[in-house]
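Hi Y.,

Following your request, here is the sequence exactly as I used it, all 537 residues.
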Amino acid sequence: MFPSFFKATVRQRLTLWALMLGVLACVFGAAEFIGSVKLAGFARAIALNTGAVAALSETDAPYSRIVVAIVSGGDRGALSGDVEAMTVAMKAVTVRSDGEVAAKAADAVRGLQELSSKLGADGAIAREALRKVAAQRSELRVQLNTMVAGVSEALGAHIENSRQNSLLLAALGLFLVALIISFEYRWLVRPIATMATTLSAPAEDAGWVRKLARRGDEIGMLGRALHAHLSDEKTKQEAAKERLASLAGEVERQRALRVRGQAFQGNIASIATALETHAASMTDASNELSQLSGFVDQHAGAAAQSSQRAANHVEQMSSSLNEITELLATTAGEAQRTSDIANAAKTLVEEATDDSVLLREAVGSISAVVTLISTVANQTNLLALNAAIEAARAGESGRGFAVVAAEVKQLANRTAEATGQVRQGLDSIGTAAERIIGRIGALVASVNAVETAADSIAELARRQDDTSRSINIGTARTASDVRGMAEQVEQVAGMIEDWRRMTERMARASADIDGQAAALRQAVDSFMSDAQAVQHA
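Below is the corresponding structure, written out as tokens. Let me know if you'd prefer a different format.
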């Protein structure tokens, strides 16, 4: 996109492009003007050089006659006119040229003047003057040819440079035109096309329109206007969606109200039906209660007498259970003492087991040390053997070393034998320790069995004691409850009359509820009919 710091409008950009194209056209015109000026200079130089060459060519015929007359020794009286003609031609070359060519032509003029003065002299002097004129004439011709070649070369170079400059300016012009078209496409055509697309599909290029709205030119003004238009349209669409959602919600609420009204009507009808059913059930229940009250009144006296006799029997059972509880408490104490003795024996056996384990670990540690000593003895024996071999190789000088090696070997052998005996003793100790551990384990199992049996006896005694106590407590509570029940039976006998009066009141209340339920059903039906009429209206 266009740089943010560049705030030019479309008119200003077009002015800038026109100025750039005008500068390029001025450069092209200046190049053409300079080329034409240079071509005019080359034309003048070519014309002068051509005139000089033509003037020099006019001297060919007189020069030939002069050469023939002087070399052949003929009549020299007519040579003055030829020399004068050559002098005039050389002066013409001097006038039409400049630089080296003019200098050479002036030298040739002086040489001809000298030749003209020496025409009447000796033949050798005349030939010498003629040779000098010939050399000057040849130098002048060579200089003219060089000048013409230089002018031709410069003209060719100028033509090539002009062609290259024309191509460069044409390429620069094409590049500038392409650049202008590209920039204007990005800055003018593309934004307008994007805005047109946005008008047809607003949701797709909304971000691009926001970018265009930040520009400071006419496209930015169009972008801001389009963005405002799109925002306004979006606001209107959202408002329309909100209105549609509100209308849909209102329709849904009306439908829900109708559904709830119908449900309410059904619920009220169900409630009225249930009230009628319950009223009938209450009437039936009151009749049944009236019949049961007479039956309960008849048997209340007999229940009171039976409860009193049951209380007496329960008290006798409670005294017997107290005696059983005392015997069970004595048995539980003896079982507890047996369990304590078994626990003490178990503790001693466990300590003996720990000592046996420590003994076995000590035997293992000693066995490891004995193994290390045996390994050192074996290595020492190998070293003694190597020393004996080296002493044998050394001959007489190693005899003393051989004796020492033999002693070391014997010491190593005795050490190996001693470690073997120690290992045998340790193995015997380890075997005995293993047997002790096994026997202690069996003893521990026996003590555990005794402890388990004592615990079982104590637990059974405790359970029996608890059961006896619970039965004792239960019988006491039962006796109390039986006495209380006898009292309650007497109270029930007094309450039966109250129940009879209550059943009569319930019968009258059920009749009233039945009438109110019918009135409620009629009121609900009237309300729902009015509500449906209002909704349809």
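The chain has two domains: 10-198, 252-536.

Thanks again,
Q.
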